[in-house]
Amino acid sequence: MIFVAPAILFFVLIVLVPFLRAILFSFQDWNGISSNIKWVGWRNYGNILHDMAFFQSFLYTIKYVLISTVLLNVLGFLLAFVLNMSLKTRNLLRTAFFLPYVIGPVIIGFIWQFIISQLLPEIGKALGWPLLEQNWLSLPTHAFWSLIIVTVWHSVGYFMIIYLAALQGVPSDILEAAEIDGAGRLERLWHVVLPLIRPAMTINLFLAISNGFKAFDLNFALTRGGPFGSTESLALHIYLDAFSKNLFTYASAKAVIFFLLLAGVTMVQVAIMKRREVEM
To answer: Residue 249 and residue 44: Cα distance in Å, rounded?
Structure first.
């Protein structure tokens, strides 16, 4: 209890108490400054049903989660598969791909903001490439893909490490037995390797989905939801409502819905993947 007590104390003060306060705030009307706090019941939740900006952010977040989850897992596995081979530079390459994840997302966002808005247009002008001459962050479709590119560049190394650890745990005798039985490289990959690394796939899918829904740092530093709110994630939308518009209680209601949505999606995903692990 002595060792666990500090962790429990910090969890209660930093996570549990604010979470319970947010639930309480969601049934009230308060601007964060006035001493007058009114009880409004379910009115905040009812107003969300008519909030088109909230649903726009929700649809954007779903799109962002789907694309980033697929790319992070596919590219992470491919990198792990290649760097699991007997390459002379594999340790150097592993470090190079993992290094961006060590840097804070806000710093990464500001660095890539400079690269995309200033450096790439100059390169495009020098090479005569119209695609690079534009400032991608000022165009809605290009801004979205800029966020996807930076997200994958920043996080793919972490997913690679998890897949790499799983690949190194695949018994070599099983692969040799499959090869002796006549299984080709692709057949060994599909029927032997992928089923054995299913727990790593469960972990990476959970991380990609939960981190995608909670995306805030890169979104805030790179685009701040622009242009015209086209890249405003749910987390950023709630933050802007609370701290830019002083709609603290309304933002709390959105945060509660956001929590229920994220908890439901991740629980269903983990349950499905765990069931597939048992079946395999």
So the answer is: 8
C-alpha 13/C-alpha 33 separation (Å) is 22
The Cα–Cα gap between 76 and 160 comes to: 4
For residue 83 the two structure tokens come to 């760097």
* CATH superfamily of the domain spanning 50-279: MetI-like (1.10.3720.10)
Mean pLDDT of 152-167: 93
Per residue in 42-92, pLDDT (tens digit) is 999 999 988 899 999 999 999 999 999 999 999 999 999 999 888 888 889
pLDDT for 60: 92
How far, in Å, are 65, 71, 159 from residue 78 at the CA level? 20, 10, 10
The answer to whether the bond into 227 is cis (omega within 30° of 0) is: yes
Buried b (16+ CB within 10 A) or exposed e, 1-20: eeeeeeeeeeeeeeeeeeee
Domain coordinates of the chain in residue numbers? 50-279
Give the angle subtended at the CA of 121 by the CAs of 117 and 123, to the nearest 5°: 130
Phi-psi sector, 182: left (phi>0), alpha (psi -120 to 50), beta: left
Distance of CA 133 to the CA centre of its chain: 29
Residue 198, phi then psi, degrees to nearest 5: -60, -40
* Contact status, residue 201 vs residue 193, Cβ threshold 8 Å: no
**Distance from C-alpha of 130 to C-alpha of 134, rounded to nearest angstrom:** 7
pLDDT at 132 over 60: yes
- Whether the predicted model's global pTM rises above the 0.90 cut: no
Of the candidates 64, 113, 136, 68, the residue with the CA atom closest to the CA atom of residue 222: 113
Mean of the per-residue pLDDT values of the chain: 88
Concatenate the DSSP letters of all residues of 108-166 into one string.
HHHHHHHIIIIIHHHHHHHHT-HHHHS-GGGSHHHHHHHHHHHHHHHHHHHHHHHHHHH
